[in-house]
Amino acid sequence: MKLRSIGILAAAFGILSAASVPAARAATWPDTSVRYIVPFSPGGVSDAVARLVASQLGTRLGQSVIVENKPGVSGLVGTRYVAHAKPDGYTIMGGTITTHAVNPLFIKATGYDPVKDFVPVSLVGTVSNVLVVRKDSRFNTVRQIIAEAKAHPDKLTYGTAGLGSSQHLSGELFQSISGTHLRQIMYKGGSQAMVDLLGGQIDMVFETIAAARPMIDAHSVKVLGVTSDHPVADLPGVKPLAELGLPGFVMQSWQGVFAPAGTPRAIVQKLSKEIGEIVAQPDVRTKLLRLGVQPDGRGMQAFGQFQKDEIRKWTGIVQAAGIKPH
């Protein structure tokens, strides 16, 4: 009996010791560099946001935060990599509406679950699009486009960076609210869509403000509306689409930080706190706004709820459009 009791106590001690290992690791984290995976190519908004946050985060943590780009297939390559990374706090990623809300609506074999395989850390900010047409377009208002689309279904074209992109989602929401049918023309990137818009090959593009800015400043395009629920400060006179014949229209992409599921809560809490404070800094807010990102900074729980609300919203819209994953 004594030997049995000793065995039971030893086993219990072993369990307690094993349970204390993650807590001990969390207490000393980080003791080496942290990898910040961006599932898109260098040069885009996601990459710029990651580098801005990483530089500040590294200073606060006392360790290097190294940005690594792992682009491919609408962000699947990098996102799948992080989903299966060791959950020790040394691998985090920049996630978007594409990677962490809508990819499963368009792609069957994503190789990850955007909710179950990740822990939301912080919502860095939201990104609005603008509806633009070329400067010599016959369209001067959103209502003119709606009228034309109703009179001639599937005639008007809009360019996108592919299924699940913010341009595509904006177009789907436009059709859902207006009861129209537009024809999507997919490109490998938003910049190619803008080239064809200027060349007269397509009728319109729902582009991010940052990407459209050079053409807006050069007066090469007309801005008919913004996809946020409020006017944008640096686009004077441009109203939300919700006020221009599309009631309830709100489409904002977003930039957030995620960690693999199972990452110690203490580490996630620290990351969330630090990133929230980074986003609140005036100089960081200014830089984000220049990128077309509206600073946010909400933490773990609020960001998690936001993500689930986004998934619910876009699931309804995509299914109503009859789109099925392939």
Automatic annotation (TrEMBL):
SUPFAM superfamilies: Periplasmic binding protein-like II (SSF53850)
Keyword Iron attributed: no
Signal peptide: 1-26
Keywords from the UniProt entry: Signal
Keyword Nucleotide-binding applies: no
Source organism superkingdom: Bacteria
Pfam families attached to this UniProt entry: TctC
Protein family membership: Belongs to the UPF0065 (bug) family.
Name this polypeptide is given: MFS transporter
Organism: Candidimonas nitroreducens
